[in-house]
Specification:
The chain is mostly helical and 287 residues long. The chain folds into two domains: 13-138 and 254-286, no CATH class; 150-237. It is 77% helix and 0% strand. It has ten helices and no strands. It has helices at residues 2-9, 16-44, 55-83, 93-137, 139-147, 161-167, 180-196, 201-215, 219-274, 281-286. The protein starts with a helix and ends with a helix. The relative contact order is 0.13.
Amino acid sequence: MDNFRNIEAYTSGVSWSAVIVGAFVTAALWLILLALGAGIGLSAISPWSNTGAAAPTIGRIGIIWLIIVQIIASSMGGYLAERLRTKWATIHTDEVYFRDTAHGFLAWAVGLVISAAFLVSAATSLAGGAEQSGRMAFPTANAAATTSALPAGGLNLNLNDYYIDRLFRTAHPGSEANDARAHAEAAGIFTHALEQKNLSAADQTYLAELVAARTGLSAAASERRVAEVYADMQQAADSIRKATAHLSLWLFVAFLIGALCASYAATIGGRQRDRVALINDSARVRH
């Protein structure tokens, strides 16, 4: 017994092998269940009106599913991280409880980092592939947009394409040549206005003249169109901001629940591990 005390006194309190096993289990279950939820969600929506689930309903179900995924994946990872760890024979019960909880939390944290790294890598690859496909499909438009003068540090202009196209609508669609430079310039002005939270009078007048020259609208009608499009863009940006804020808060709640579940499940695994009876060599031979 003294030998056990001496060994455990100078041994690290963290069993990284068990933590890594629990982390990979957490990450694998999280990704599998996330893919399952995405498939169910996509099957529940429809591009046709009055069919499929509404966007708010999908959002609420998605949040609930995310919490369920965290509970299942984190609990399983935390449980295995402690169930597979070597028993501490000479450590006080309170210290064992603390270490069990810490191992579950570490398994959850490492699993979260692994999952995040995988998702970021996958998203980067998909974005790069989509960008490459777009360049191959529209080489002329991309070349014109690249050579146009844009303000540095602007937002992704793809989000504003709808509004910019709407800005230059004419009474005879297809009769006007697409002016990529004018679109890019207007997008840069609107991006700057959204960042500064104000569309200056000079920019508004210039945009109205740009619209009038390419659509044939009167000066007053062009100014009204500019004001309407800018107001719609502000509303869309505010909606995105609110949705992002809500998603961030619910992600925090889901991850917090996952951390607590992993820590609690680890204590369950630790108690079951400690109840395992050890057998000596003679008993092992008899059985």
